[in-house]
Amino acid sequence: MNHTEKLTRYTANFVDELVAAGVTDAVISPGSRSTPMAMTMTEHPDLKQWVIIDERSAAFFALGMAKQTKRPVAIVCTSGTAAANYFPAIVEAHYSRVPLIVLTADRPHELRDVGAPQSIGQLELYGDYPKWFHEMALPEAGEDMLGYVRNKASRAVQTAAQGNAGPVHLNFPFREPLIPDFSLEDLWGDREGGPYRARTEGKRRLDSQQLEQISKKLASSGKGLIICGPQTDPDLTEALAVLAREWEVPVLADPLSQLRAGSHPKDYMIEGYDAFLRSETIRKQLKPDYIIRFGAMPVSKAYLFFIKEHKDIPQFVVENHGGYREPAGNHTEFIDADAATLCRDLANHKPAIASNDAWLATWKRMNRISKEWLQEQDGRNGLTEGGAIRSLMQVIPDNSSIYIGNSMAVRDLDTFFMSTSASLEVLANRGANGIDGMVSSGIGAAASGKPVTLVLGDLSFFHDMNGLLAAKHYGLNITILVVNNNGGGIFSFLPQVNHQDHFETLFGTPLDIDFQHAVNMYGGTYHQPASLPELEETLEKSYQHRGLSVVEVKTDRTENLEWHRNKWQAIENELLQDRG
């Protein structure tokens, strides 16, 4: 058997096993050393290939796709710095628990550390961020080696998806010649007998004694608080709504909790807490007896202040598969159990949990007043950063997704996204909270075919404009709402704004770019509405348009800061006057 046949059978069996294990999509970046893997993937009848030229964009595209589909996505690149460009997305996948199968081609061992071109140290290139790294053996085609390569493919998919999902990294040393021979008989080999393919993962559940112990710890005067941070489990929303109703406890629902939208009951949902918890006086008034949190830490900085000021409060954090997500440093009891199942089980322990009507009424009243102020239309026909979010929520299609950018975008969504019965999923890159790769991530989510609206600031848009190529190349439908305050608007809310000698150069960083030219270059449609009615009309039309639609809303950073502060001050004033 010659080299080409060994290479072909080895690679074909690996790719076929990826498909057998559930991989449906592969994102490929062009390169020579990755030729065997790239060409073989394009030959497989059950694998969809997406060719994204830039590796950083490709990895974030795959990340967005994996978030949307809830399935592992494979990414393939050549050797050298191509692989290094995957790093930011791998970091994000690690922290946001997204399954990626990272497949890097490499020089064979004899070409390493000898000055060969496009050869860098790729062994464990991504450090501790992958859940598993494996240096693949050189291609062979004996029965044992074909079993080996299938086992590694299957294990990669299982490891990426099981427990807390995340990236895995397999490094492939390939010798030349690199062109496979697809005329071989029985090209895809034998799927039978793969011992690592089958795995059944059960859900963690507390026994009756453990449930009783937790219920006793929570039994109190009834001033409890449930928090739901960023999470994507569709089973949790209904279960948590039932728990809140049975316990009669308010639920602080993060915009990424999936609790603010959907058909589940929302009587106990508090979505305006970021606005009124900005008041130190109100934070002191609302000291709870206990806190139980589901999902990651909420976006709200006001909530972070709230829990830091109440370090003595018993706090319970629920993790489906373990982990440590408690940045406040408070004393915390972690509960490792399936969140939805735990909610249902705890709901059955209602007699052990005291309720407090006045406590619940206070949270509901503060939420109602805050929402009234936040929903009030004012300022430049409502064409503010908050107004842009409110307009979006008026016209966004049912059964669609919002992919929200970081910095100001996600905070404005937190503030102005009110509860709705519409079926909306909210996605974000809140693992490492970076602004890089946002365009590619949103377009990757849109590749699933589900309507996606990407909302981000001008810096995030600029940072990843080359991600627009995928929308053009594949004719993907996506609406991108760019809120352009000409720089880093988030810094206007931070102490750096008080140092005006350096602020604009180091933090404000105005771009002064006409984005319309970039949108035209990538074949998209561009609109810059001048009023709130025009914005809503433009967004509605964008959902009827095939392909890329970019809607830009221009705002002023200074005006935006004052507008937000006036809202928060008005809310605090009314709540403090209305107390008692």
Give the secondary structure arrangement, pairings included.
Elements: H1 3-20, E1 25-28, H2 35-43, E2 48-51, H3 55-69, E3 73-77, H4 81-84, H5 87-96, E4 100-106, E5 132-135, H6 143-161, E6 167-173, H7 208-218, E7 224-228, H8 234-247, E8 251-253, E9 269-270, H9 273-276, H10 280-285, E10 290-294, H11 301-308, E11 315-319, E12 332-336, H12 339-347, H13 357-375, H14 385-395, E13 400-404, H15 408-416, E14 424-428, H16 438-446, E15 452-457, H17 458-463, H18 468-474, E16 478-484, H19 500-508, H20 515-521, E17 525-527, H21 532-542, E18 548-554, H22 557-578
Helix pairs in contact: 1-2, 1-6, 3-5, 3-16, 8-12, 13-22, 14-15, 14-21
Strand order of the largest sheet: 2-1-3-4-6-5
- Please indicate the count of domains: 3
Tally of separate helices = 22
- Briefly, what CATH class of the largest domain? Alpha Beta
Low-pLDDT residue spans: none
Kindly report how far apart the N and C termini lie: 86 Å
Shape, principal axes of CA atoms:
globular
Q: What is the average per-residue confidence, as pLDDT, rounded to a whole number?
A: 92
Structural class: alpha/beta
Give the strand tally: 18
Largest sheet: 6 strands, parallel
Helicity, as a percent range:
40-55%
Name given to the CATH homologous superfamily of the largest domain? Thiamin diphosphate (ThDP)-binding fold, Pyr/PP domains
Say what the CATH topology of the largest domain is.
Rossmann fold
CATH architecture name of the largest domain: 3-Layer(aba) Sandwich
Strand residue content: 15-25%
Rg measurement, Å? 26 Å
